[in-house]
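Exercise 3.2. Students should predict the tertiary structure of the chain below and write it as C-alpha coordinates, then compare their answer with the key that follows.

Predict this chain's 3D structure.
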Amino acid sequence: MQKSWIISVIAVLFASSLVSAEPFLVPAHSAYTLPDAEAAQFRENQPVTDWKHEKNHIVWYPRFTTTGEVTCMVAMRLPIGMKSKLSLHVGGASREVSYEGKGDKDVLVDFGAFRIAKVGYQALELHSENPVTTDPGDVVSLQLDGPAAGGVQANQKERRNAASVHLSYPQPKDIYVAGFYCEASAQEDPVATYYMACGWHRGYFGMQVNSPTERRIIFSVWDSGNESVSRDKVGAADRVTLIAKGENVFSGDFGNEGTGGHSHLKYLWKTGEVQKFFVTAAVLDATHTIFSGYWFHPDQKKWMLISSWRAPKEGNYLSGLYSFSENFGGHNGHLLRKAHFGNQWIFTSDKKWIEVTQASFSHDGTGKDDRLDRFMGVENGQFFLSQGGFLNDYTKYGTPFNRPARKTPPVLDLPDHARK
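Answer key:
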Protein backbone atom coordinates (compact mmCIF):
# COMPACT_ATOMS: atom_id res chain seq x y z
CA MET A 1 0.00 0.00 0.00
CA GLN A 2 2.77 2.41 0.94
CA LYS A 3 4.76 1.49 -2.18
CA SER A 4 1.85 2.15 -4.57
CA TRP A 5 1.16 5.48 -2.81
CA ILE A 6 4.76 6.58 -3.36
CA ILE A 7 4.57 5.57 -7.03
CA SER A 8 1.32 7.54 -7.41
CA VAL A 9 2.87 10.64 -5.84
CA ILE A 10 5.91 10.39 -8.11
CA ALA A 11 3.66 10.05 -11.14
CA VAL A 12 1.62 13.12 -10.14
CA LEU A 13 4.75 15.17 -9.54
CA PHE A 14 6.22 14.10 -12.89
CA ALA A 15 3.00 14.97 -14.72
CA SER A 16 2.85 18.28 -12.88
CA SER A 17 6.40 19.12 -13.94
CA LEU A 18 5.50 18.46 -17.56
CA VAL A 19 2.46 20.72 -17.36
CA SER A 20 4.31 23.54 -15.63
CA ALA A 21 7.35 23.50 -17.94
CA GLU A 22 7.78 26.90 -19.54
CA PRO A 23 8.32 27.26 -23.29
CA PHE A 24 11.77 28.37 -24.45
CA LEU A 25 11.67 32.03 -25.52
CA VAL A 26 13.94 33.60 -28.13
CA PRO A 27 13.57 37.41 -28.22
CA ALA A 28 12.95 39.15 -31.51
CA HIS A 29 15.97 41.41 -30.98
CA SER A 30 18.31 38.44 -31.54
CA ALA A 31 16.87 37.56 -34.98
CA TYR A 32 17.94 38.73 -38.45
CA THR A 33 16.21 39.91 -41.62
CA LEU A 34 16.93 38.16 -44.89
CA PRO A 35 17.87 38.87 -47.60
CA ASP A 36 18.33 42.53 -46.59
CA ALA A 37 20.11 42.51 -43.24
CA GLU A 38 19.17 46.15 -42.63
CA ALA A 39 15.49 45.90 -43.57
CA ALA A 40 14.05 46.11 -40.05
CA GLN A 41 14.47 48.00 -36.78
CA PHE A 42 16.09 45.97 -33.99
CA ARG A 43 16.18 47.40 -30.47
CA GLU A 44 17.02 45.75 -27.18
CA ASN A 45 13.97 44.25 -25.45
CA GLN A 46 11.67 45.82 -28.06
CA PRO A 47 9.64 44.26 -30.86
CA VAL A 48 11.15 44.14 -34.34
CA THR A 49 9.41 46.68 -36.59
CA ASP A 50 9.42 47.85 -40.20
CA TRP A 51 10.02 44.50 -41.90
CA LYS A 52 6.96 44.55 -44.16
CA HIS A 53 8.74 44.41 -47.52
CA GLU A 54 7.40 41.30 -49.23
CA LYS A 55 10.86 39.93 -50.05
CA ASN A 56 12.21 40.11 -46.48
CA HIS A 57 11.61 37.74 -43.61
CA ILE A 58 12.64 37.34 -39.96
CA VAL A 59 14.98 34.45 -39.11
CA TRP A 60 16.01 32.90 -35.79
CA TYR A 61 18.75 30.28 -35.47
CA PRO A 62 18.16 28.16 -32.35
CA ARG A 63 20.51 25.24 -31.75
CA PHE A 64 18.68 21.99 -31.07
CA THR A 65 20.31 19.25 -29.02
CA THR A 66 17.37 16.86 -29.33
CA THR A 67 15.41 15.65 -32.33
CA GLY A 68 11.62 15.28 -32.43
CA GLU A 69 8.67 17.61 -32.53
CA VAL A 70 8.83 21.27 -31.59
CA THR A 71 5.76 23.46 -31.19
CA CYS A 72 6.33 26.99 -32.48
CA MET A 73 4.47 30.15 -31.51
CA VAL A 74 5.38 33.73 -32.33
CA ALA A 75 4.26 36.64 -30.14
CA MET A 76 3.08 39.53 -32.35
CA ARG A 77 1.66 43.03 -31.88
CA LEU A 78 -0.76 44.68 -34.27
CA PRO A 79 -3.33 47.50 -33.86
CA ILE A 80 -6.76 46.40 -32.62
CA GLY A 81 -8.93 44.97 -35.37
CA MET A 82 -6.19 44.76 -38.02
CA LYS A 83 -5.55 41.36 -39.58
CA SER A 84 -2.38 39.74 -40.86
CA LYS A 85 -1.32 36.43 -42.37
CA LEU A 86 2.08 34.94 -41.55
CA SER A 87 3.91 31.74 -42.40
CA LEU A 88 6.63 29.91 -40.50
CA HIS A 89 9.19 27.78 -42.33
CA VAL A 90 11.11 25.07 -40.44
CA GLY A 91 13.24 22.34 -42.01
CA GLY A 92 11.53 22.38 -45.40
CA ALA A 93 8.00 22.50 -43.95
CA SER A 94 5.82 25.59 -43.63
CA ARG A 95 2.45 26.62 -42.24
CA GLU A 96 0.30 29.74 -42.70
CA VAL A 97 -1.73 31.29 -39.89
CA SER A 98 -3.91 34.41 -39.80
CA TYR A 99 -4.38 36.50 -36.65
CA GLU A 100 -6.06 39.69 -35.49
CA GLY A 101 -4.32 42.45 -33.55
CA LYS A 102 -5.01 43.39 -29.93
CA GLY A 103 -3.13 46.65 -29.74
CA ASP A 104 -0.38 46.67 -27.11
CA LYS A 105 -1.32 43.17 -25.99
CA ASP A 106 0.74 40.33 -27.45
CA VAL A 107 -1.02 37.85 -29.70
CA LEU A 108 0.43 34.32 -29.66
CA VAL A 109 0.31 33.05 -33.24
CA ASP A 110 0.37 29.25 -33.00
CA PHE A 111 2.02 27.55 -35.99
CA GLY A 112 1.73 24.08 -34.50
CA ALA A 113 4.35 21.34 -34.46
CA PHE A 114 7.32 20.83 -36.78
CA ARG A 115 9.74 17.95 -36.99
CA ILE A 116 13.39 18.55 -36.04
CA ALA A 117 15.18 15.78 -37.90
CA LYS A 118 18.73 16.43 -36.72
CA VAL A 119 20.50 18.27 -33.95
CA GLY A 120 22.32 21.54 -34.55
CA TYR A 121 21.41 25.02 -35.72
CA GLN A 122 18.08 25.28 -37.53
CA ALA A 123 16.72 28.34 -39.37
CA LEU A 124 13.16 29.27 -38.32
CA GLU A 125 11.86 31.77 -40.86
CA LEU A 126 8.86 34.04 -40.31
CA HIS A 127 7.36 35.37 -43.57
CA SER A 128 4.64 37.93 -44.20
CA GLU A 129 1.95 36.62 -46.56
CA ASN A 130 0.31 40.05 -46.81
CA PRO A 131 0.36 42.61 -49.61
CA VAL A 132 3.41 44.86 -49.30
CA THR A 133 1.17 47.75 -48.19
CA THR A 134 -0.24 45.73 -45.25
CA ASP A 135 1.52 45.83 -41.89
CA PRO A 136 2.27 42.22 -40.83
CA GLY A 137 2.71 43.31 -37.20
CA ASP A 138 5.66 43.80 -34.87
CA VAL A 139 7.56 40.68 -33.82
CA VAL A 140 8.02 40.20 -30.06
CA SER A 141 9.47 36.71 -29.59
CA LEU A 142 9.63 33.11 -30.75
CA GLN A 143 8.36 30.49 -28.30
CA LEU A 144 9.40 26.83 -28.56
CA ASP A 145 7.86 23.90 -26.72
CA GLY A 146 7.68 20.15 -27.01
CA PRO A 147 10.24 17.31 -26.90
CA ALA A 148 12.77 18.95 -29.27
CA ALA A 149 12.75 22.16 -27.21
CA GLY A 150 14.51 20.39 -24.37
CA GLY A 151 18.10 21.62 -24.19
CA VAL A 152 17.65 24.13 -27.02
CA GLN A 153 20.20 26.98 -27.07
CA ALA A 154 19.88 30.40 -28.72
CA ASN A 155 21.37 33.84 -28.34
CA GLN A 156 19.25 35.89 -25.94
CA LYS A 157 21.17 39.14 -26.25
CA GLU A 158 20.61 42.15 -28.46
CA ARG A 159 24.23 41.85 -29.65
CA ARG A 160 23.88 39.91 -32.90
CA ASN A 161 27.56 39.82 -33.86
CA ALA A 162 29.23 36.50 -34.48
CA ALA A 163 31.93 35.67 -31.95
CA SER A 164 35.36 37.21 -32.33
CA VAL A 165 37.98 34.48 -32.80
CA HIS A 166 41.75 34.52 -32.28
CA LEU A 167 45.02 32.75 -33.05
CA SER A 168 47.57 33.05 -30.24
CA TYR A 169 51.19 32.43 -31.25
CA PRO A 170 53.81 31.08 -28.83
CA GLN A 171 56.85 33.26 -28.36
CA PRO A 172 60.31 31.71 -27.89
CA LYS A 173 61.98 32.49 -24.57
CA ASP A 174 65.02 34.68 -24.19
CA ILE A 175 64.59 36.59 -27.45
CA TYR A 176 63.48 40.11 -28.29
CA VAL A 177 60.89 40.33 -31.09
CA ALA A 178 61.76 43.32 -33.26
CA GLY A 179 59.37 42.33 -36.06
CA PHE A 180 56.39 40.07 -36.75
CA TYR A 181 55.44 38.99 -40.28
CA CYS A 182 52.11 37.37 -41.23
CA GLU A 183 50.11 36.82 -44.41
CA ALA A 184 46.32 36.85 -44.55
CA SER A 185 43.77 36.09 -47.24
CA ALA A 186 40.02 36.53 -46.89
CA GLN A 187 37.93 33.56 -47.99
CA GLU A 188 34.63 35.27 -47.21
CA ASP A 189 34.05 39.02 -47.22
CA PRO A 190 30.85 40.26 -45.57
CA VAL A 191 30.63 43.94 -44.72
CA ALA A 192 31.62 44.71 -41.09
CA THR A 193 34.52 42.25 -41.06
CA TYR A 194 38.05 42.92 -39.79
CA TYR A 195 40.72 40.30 -40.48
CA MET A 196 43.69 41.25 -38.28
CA ALA A 197 47.00 39.61 -39.20
CA CYS A 198 49.58 41.16 -36.84
CA GLY A 199 48.47 41.85 -33.30
CA TRP A 200 50.68 42.48 -30.29
CA HIS A 201 50.43 43.90 -26.79
CA ARG A 202 50.12 47.52 -28.00
CA GLY A 203 48.23 47.35 -31.31
CA TYR A 204 46.82 45.62 -34.34
CA PHE A 205 47.33 45.51 -38.12
CA GLY A 206 45.04 44.04 -40.76
CA MET A 207 42.34 44.53 -43.39
CA GLN A 208 38.70 45.52 -43.12
CA VAL A 209 35.49 45.48 -45.16
CA ASN A 210 33.70 48.78 -44.47
CA SER A 211 31.04 48.73 -47.19
CA PRO A 212 30.34 47.13 -50.58
CA THR A 213 32.56 49.81 -52.12
CA GLU A 214 35.17 50.50 -49.41
CA ARG A 215 37.92 48.37 -47.89
CA ARG A 216 40.82 49.42 -45.69
CA ILE A 217 44.27 48.46 -44.48
CA ILE A 218 44.30 49.44 -40.77
CA PHE A 219 47.18 49.96 -38.36
CA SER A 220 46.50 51.21 -34.81
CA VAL A 221 48.49 51.59 -31.59
CA TRP A 222 47.03 51.93 -28.09
CA ASP A 223 47.79 54.73 -25.67
CA SER A 224 49.21 54.06 -22.22
CA GLY A 225 46.88 54.24 -19.24
CA ASN A 226 43.47 52.73 -18.59
CA GLU A 227 41.04 55.01 -20.44
CA SER A 228 38.73 52.81 -22.52
CA VAL A 229 36.30 55.26 -24.14
CA SER A 230 37.39 58.84 -24.84
CA ARG A 231 40.83 59.93 -25.99
CA ASP A 232 39.98 63.44 -24.81
CA LYS A 233 40.58 62.13 -21.29
CA VAL A 234 44.10 60.88 -22.10
CA GLY A 235 46.93 63.22 -21.11
CA ALA A 236 49.94 63.97 -23.29
CA ALA A 237 52.20 61.75 -21.20
CA ASP A 238 50.08 58.70 -22.12
CA ARG A 239 49.34 59.46 -25.78
CA VAL A 240 51.03 57.72 -28.68
CA THR A 241 52.21 60.26 -31.26
CA LEU A 242 52.41 59.92 -35.02
CA ILE A 243 55.99 59.83 -36.36
CA ALA A 244 55.35 59.15 -40.05
CA LYS A 245 52.73 57.77 -42.42
CA GLY A 246 52.53 56.60 -46.01
CA GLU A 247 51.04 58.29 -49.05
CA ASN A 248 47.22 58.64 -48.92
CA VAL A 249 47.12 57.21 -45.40
CA PHE A 250 44.60 58.81 -43.03
CA SER A 251 45.58 59.15 -39.36
CA GLY A 252 43.57 60.13 -36.30
CA ASP A 253 42.25 58.99 -32.92
CA PHE A 254 40.21 56.01 -31.82
CA GLY A 255 38.30 55.14 -28.66
CA ASN A 256 35.63 52.88 -27.17
CA GLU A 257 37.98 49.88 -27.16
CA GLY A 258 40.79 51.52 -25.33
CA THR A 259 42.18 54.67 -26.96
CA GLY A 260 45.06 55.37 -29.27
CA GLY A 261 46.33 56.42 -32.68
CA HIS A 262 44.56 55.06 -35.74
CA SER A 263 45.64 54.96 -39.38
CA HIS A 264 44.18 53.45 -42.51
CA LEU A 265 44.64 53.29 -46.25
CA LYS A 266 41.54 52.90 -48.39
CA TYR A 267 42.32 50.07 -50.79
CA LEU A 268 40.02 47.52 -52.47
CA TRP A 269 42.01 44.45 -51.53
CA LYS A 270 40.76 41.31 -53.24
CA THR A 271 39.12 38.33 -51.58
CA GLY A 272 41.35 35.27 -51.97
CA GLU A 273 44.46 37.37 -52.63
CA VAL A 274 47.30 37.12 -50.09
CA GLN A 275 47.98 40.34 -48.15
CA LYS A 276 51.39 40.69 -46.47
CA PHE A 277 51.88 42.52 -43.16
CA PHE A 278 54.97 43.32 -41.10
CA VAL A 279 54.97 45.18 -37.77
CA THR A 280 58.19 46.37 -36.15
CA ALA A 281 59.32 47.65 -32.75
CA ALA A 282 62.26 50.07 -32.43
CA VAL A 283 63.13 50.60 -28.77
CA LEU A 284 64.30 54.17 -28.18
CA ASP A 285 64.98 54.05 -24.45
CA ALA A 286 63.65 52.49 -21.25
CA THR A 287 60.22 54.10 -21.65
CA HIS A 288 59.67 54.67 -25.39
CA THR A 289 59.24 52.43 -28.44
CA ILE A 290 58.33 53.25 -32.04
CA PHE A 291 55.87 50.78 -33.55
CA SER A 292 55.55 50.74 -37.36
CA GLY A 293 53.29 48.88 -39.75
CA TYR A 294 54.37 47.95 -43.31
CA TRP A 295 52.12 46.44 -45.96
CA PHE A 296 53.03 45.04 -49.37
CA HIS A 297 51.02 46.90 -52.03
CA PRO A 298 49.79 44.29 -54.55
CA ASP A 299 49.39 46.80 -57.40
CA GLN A 300 52.65 48.66 -56.88
CA LYS A 301 54.55 45.45 -56.08
CA LYS A 302 56.42 47.06 -53.21
CA TRP A 303 56.30 47.55 -49.47
CA MET A 304 54.84 50.77 -48.11
CA LEU A 305 54.68 52.32 -44.67
CA ILE A 306 51.17 52.64 -43.29
CA SER A 307 52.27 54.55 -40.18
CA SER A 308 54.73 54.77 -37.27
CA TRP A 309 53.80 55.73 -33.71
CA ARG A 310 55.95 56.67 -30.73
CA ALA A 311 54.54 54.88 -27.67
CA PRO A 312 55.24 56.27 -24.17
CA LYS A 313 55.67 54.20 -21.01
CA GLU A 314 56.87 51.29 -23.10
CA GLY A 315 60.54 50.59 -23.88
CA ASN A 316 59.74 47.02 -24.92
CA TYR A 317 59.80 44.93 -28.07
CA LEU A 318 56.76 43.03 -29.41
CA SER A 319 54.98 40.49 -27.23
CA GLY A 320 51.60 38.75 -27.05
CA LEU A 321 51.54 37.98 -30.78
CA TYR A 322 48.17 37.03 -32.24
CA SER A 323 45.76 37.27 -35.19
CA PHE A 324 41.99 37.55 -35.10
CA SER A 325 38.76 37.79 -37.06
CA GLU A 326 36.10 40.23 -35.89
CA ASN A 327 32.49 40.87 -36.91
CA PHE A 328 32.10 44.47 -35.75
CA GLY A 329 28.52 45.04 -36.99
CA GLY A 330 25.72 42.83 -35.70
CA HIS A 331 23.16 43.42 -38.45
CA ASN A 332 24.77 40.68 -40.57
CA GLY A 333 26.22 38.51 -37.80
CA HIS A 334 24.51 35.48 -39.33
CA LEU A 335 26.90 35.47 -42.30
CA LEU A 336 30.00 33.29 -42.49
CA ARG A 337 33.39 34.95 -42.08
CA LYS A 338 36.56 33.04 -42.89
CA ALA A 339 40.21 33.90 -43.52
CA HIS A 340 43.54 32.10 -43.88
CA PHE A 341 46.55 33.20 -41.82
CA GLY A 342 49.92 31.79 -42.80
CA ASN A 343 53.69 32.09 -43.19
CA GLN A 344 54.20 33.65 -39.76
CA TRP A 345 57.74 34.69 -38.83
CA ILE A 346 59.43 36.47 -35.93
CA PHE A 347 62.35 38.81 -36.62
CA THR A 348 64.62 39.07 -33.60
CA SER A 349 66.55 42.06 -32.31
CA ASP A 350 69.77 40.37 -33.46
CA LYS A 351 68.38 40.10 -37.01
CA LYS A 352 67.44 36.42 -37.10
CA TRP A 353 64.24 34.92 -38.52
CA ILE A 354 62.27 32.32 -36.51
CA GLU A 355 59.29 30.62 -38.15
CA VAL A 356 56.06 30.29 -36.14
CA THR A 357 54.17 27.11 -36.99
CA GLN A 358 51.95 26.70 -33.92
CA ALA A 359 48.87 28.63 -32.78
CA SER A 360 46.06 28.05 -30.30
CA PHE A 361 42.40 28.99 -30.58
CA SER A 362 40.42 31.40 -28.44
CA HIS A 363 37.23 33.45 -28.67
CA ASP A 364 35.44 36.28 -26.91
CA GLY A 365 32.54 36.02 -24.47
CA THR A 366 29.99 35.78 -27.27
CA GLY A 367 31.57 32.49 -28.32
CA LYS A 368 31.22 31.01 -24.83
CA ASP A 369 27.45 30.60 -24.60
CA ASP A 370 25.68 32.78 -27.18
CA ARG A 371 27.28 31.64 -30.46
CA LEU A 372 29.02 28.29 -30.88
CA ASP A 373 29.64 28.70 -34.61
CA ARG A 374 33.36 29.48 -34.20
CA PHE A 375 36.27 27.49 -35.59
CA MET A 376 40.01 27.21 -36.13
CA GLY A 377 41.97 24.69 -38.17
CA VAL A 378 44.65 24.13 -40.79
CA GLU A 379 43.80 24.35 -44.48
CA ASN A 380 46.13 24.46 -47.49
CA GLY A 381 49.11 24.70 -45.18
CA GLN A 382 47.73 27.73 -43.31
CA PHE A 383 45.73 28.36 -40.18
CA PHE A 384 42.16 29.45 -40.71
CA LEU A 385 39.65 31.22 -38.52
CA SER A 386 35.93 31.29 -39.15
CA GLN A 387 32.84 32.46 -37.33
CA GLY A 388 29.19 32.93 -38.19
CA GLY A 389 27.09 31.04 -40.68
CA PHE A 390 25.50 29.03 -37.84
CA LEU A 391 27.64 26.03 -38.75
CA ASN A 392 27.47 23.04 -36.46
CA ASP A 393 30.26 21.64 -34.31
CA TYR A 394 32.88 24.04 -32.98
CA THR A 395 36.53 24.33 -31.94
CA LYS A 396 37.20 24.05 -28.24
CA TYR A 397 38.77 27.05 -26.53
CA GLY A 398 42.54 26.61 -26.19
CA THR A 399 42.92 23.93 -28.87
CA PRO A 400 46.45 24.04 -30.40
CA PHE A 401 47.18 23.52 -34.11
CA ASN A 402 50.36 23.18 -36.15
CA ARG A 403 50.84 24.20 -39.76
CA PRO A 404 53.52 22.82 -42.10
CA ALA A 405 56.79 24.77 -41.98
CA ARG A 406 57.84 26.69 -45.10
CA LYS A 407 61.44 27.07 -43.93
CA THR A 408 62.10 30.08 -46.17
CA PRO A 409 61.85 33.47 -44.43
CA PRO A 410 60.32 36.44 -46.24
CA VAL A 411 62.42 38.89 -48.21
CA LEU A 412 61.45 42.43 -47.23
CA ASP A 413 62.54 45.46 -49.21
CA LEU A 414 61.14 48.05 -46.81
CA PRO A 415 60.98 51.79 -47.58
CA ASP A 416 63.75 54.10 -46.37
CA HIS A 417 61.85 55.04 -43.21
CA ALA A 418 62.45 51.55 -41.84
CA ARG A 419 66.21 52.03 -41.93
CA LYS A 420 66.27 55.33 -40.03
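Discussion points: The longest strand covers residues 103-116. DSSP finds two helices and 29 strands in the chain.
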